[in-house]
């Protein structure tokens, strides 16, 4: 019954989306307020229904209802409850239902909470949201039904991939999806504004919090995913420039650019066409990412749905929505007047530079990711990997960091070159100091990019605090704090990346119990190897006593074996200290009772993710600050009346 | 979701698909000379694993990746230059085996992309910025 | 100029769609062929992999008659699955030598006892060195070597029953 109810809820939600689209379209076309009045309730009901459908699927997974095909193929009754729960979205159909749910709930939120937008644009936006939802409902209902039954029901399920059996699964995909799909709101806003020809500052002010919200979640999702890959893959890497990772980075790059251009539009009523374009591009990148992952046209993706039917379905949606949006853009944007040109030395110009560099990085990641596909069409197989992206995107990202540090120190409209230079004097001095320091310490031992990374991280970190300099800290608005923290987070993260690639010490040894290993100031005593049993796995565990001029700590790297499906994984042991992480992996038995160990000391590597969290926190504060200001103004207006 | 898929695809090593033989001597043993080891490691990070298809041999558990690591370390130790080893591998497996795109003509557009994009961007930017008056 | 810029994104997008569609409808075979096809075999000398078969060196593959060089391993499941096809090829007159990858003699002996032994010579490549030198990317693979010791053809994956006539044709063509 539960599965049928879920399916019914989905069908109902899809019908409501159709109704919502028609109501908005006819209402706006014929100027019929009574039709438009029904659009918001329809959006809210649609959101509630998708949430119900998703909750029901979770229930099916929690109950291990093996008569449902999806549960039978992806779950197992002997799995810990957390993985039954999170396993709901650890597969194609479940994650698409999550996608649709986020879209529905986001649409409901826009219907309920959006007050700043002009009414007709609001209605057009909700119509747009309904239109894109419809395509994904169709995808779900016609080619990826999560509620399909299987008869006869198997005795037990096939289990969830052991690599996914990690708390990371409970947090990373939902956050990433909230961000990914949250960008659909920005997309719908852009469509709405194009339809009603309202591309102006007030539109930008209304769109900004939604972009910020999606961006915060996207940032958190990527940060969490990176850390998860870092400890789960067992080779100490935290970003591999894999097509699948690039697919999650591209929407983030677009959203980051959008976040900044929308500020220019809100403040100076300029960059209109560009902002609308970015809003379209950001969600397009979400869809392109989904397509690349689901269609299996790029290697790395082969384990999931290498299903041409699904691939063509998403490609169809992509062509329809993005092609439609770009056509609408071409058709309507000609009428939108561009603002006056900017002064060379102004905040606007800095933000445009930020947008330019972010877009170039986005373009390079896109081209690099798709290049193998293009050459394949000519019968030539190539690989584009980390060496290319590091070398090409790295320097541009560093330039972007410098622009990021300088931007907030330049005034809107027009500023004096000399004044800006003066404000940048301290960070420049620090950069000089750091360069000589790092050169003295590590010149010749570290690459040029890590060297520049360290220097820029330090000086940009200081420069990012400069907007608070000589200000009354208690009267500084919350969104300024948000910006400062987010920018500081970028510097912190960059510092972690540079430090990791410059100073990581690797030690590979084959050791037998009783041996002591010395590396990077650490002493590791290999005590013993013992078998242990977990919830649904068994493992060989190494017990190691680790010390660095202090009390010893015991760590336990494991090699795990899962029965359903039969797979082995290695669980790295991570020891976090203020100045870095010790990362120990237990490998295979070599010979003569010796075990392969991989040991890394990674100075300040944790800053990478700390920085990511700071960036998200900064975004959240900025969102809160803007919203609170709105509430205050409304409250005052009400009090005055 | 995306990273999950990555994990899915990359390291789920099915049991019994690998050999029981111990790894080659230098698969997971560093060279004594740190400078040579750095050289070898840098090369390994740019060579694509053949059996896993989406990882470099520097971070793959596949046995063939281990054999390739061992071979690279041994050849570096014997004095061979990393680029010579890369060329040797490319002669066998094609450009595909190198994560670092080569200078083959089909890859020229890829290397030109950053310049083209930056140039386009600056061109666009010029339209947005007021020409400075000569005086100030 | 502005009109051009306005429609540029759509044009680019259509290009991407075409690319995606071509990727979708001509799926990547994900098979990496050796670039040495058409070139002489790299020189190698391998110890014997089985108790009752002589070792293998590259010089022994240039005998004036085309031969098959099968790359297999005792731990590889598809290798066992292709054994009947190798027998059929041998029955049709093909000369087959083999290289066992990352293997040990007792394991190879047991494997051959179980699955039959169509091989004339078997070399042991314990560290995949010759496999890499050949540009082979997995097991099983089968190379057609012409009479002068040049690689004429590389078959990747197990030989299915309907591949047998094609392999025989390749052998004849390499004459």
Automatic annotation (TrEMBL), chain A:
Family annotation (InterPro entries): CcmF_C, Cyt_c_assembly, Cyt_c_biogenesis, Cyt_c_biogenesis_CcmF
Pfam families: CcmF_C, Cytochrom_C_asm
Domain Cytochrome c assembly protein: start-end pairs: 89-295
Segments crossing the lipid bilayer: 6-26, 38-62, 96-113, 125-142, 177-197, 209-229, 249-266, 273-293, 313-331, 352-372, 392-412, 424-442, 448-466, 478-498, 604-624
Primary location recorded for the protein, binned into one broad class: membrane
GO cellular component: plasma membrane
Keywords of the record: Cell inner membrane, Cell membrane, Cytochrome c-type biogenesis, Lyase, Membrane, Transmembrane, Transmembrane helix
A Gene Ontology biological process term: cytochrome complex assembly
Transcription regulation recorded as keyword: no
Compartments, as annotated in UniProt: Cell inner membrane
Record's keyword annotation contains Oxidoreductase: no
Entry function: Required for the biogenesis of c-type cytochromes. Possible subunit of a heme lyase.
Protein name per its UniProtKB record: Heme lyase CcmF/NrfE family subunit
Organism, scientific name: Sphingobium terrigena
Source organism phylogeny: Bacteria, Pseudomonadati, Pseudomonadota, Alphaproteobacteria, Sphingomonadales
UniProtKB/TrEMBL annotation, chain B:
Pfam families: CcmH
An annotated GO cellular component: plasma membrane
Coiled-coil regions, chain positions: none
InterPro entries per UniProt: C-type_cytochrome_biogenesis, CcmH/CycL/Ccl2/NrfF_N, CcmH/CycL/NrfF/Ccl2_sf
GO-annotated molecular function: metal ion binding
Positions of transmembrane segments: 106-125
Presence of keyword Transmembrane: yes
Domain CcmH/CycL/Ccl2/NrfF N-terminal: residue ranges: 23-134
Keyword terms, alphabetized: Cytochrome c-type biogenesis, Heme, Iron, Membrane, Metal-binding, Signal, Transmembrane, Transmembrane helix
Cleavable signal peptide: 1-17
GO biological process: cytochrome complex assembly
Role of this protein: Possible subunit of a heme lyase.
Entry similarity comment: Belongs to the CcmH/CycL/Ccl2/NrfF family.
Name under which the protein is recorded: Cytochrome c-type biogenesis protein
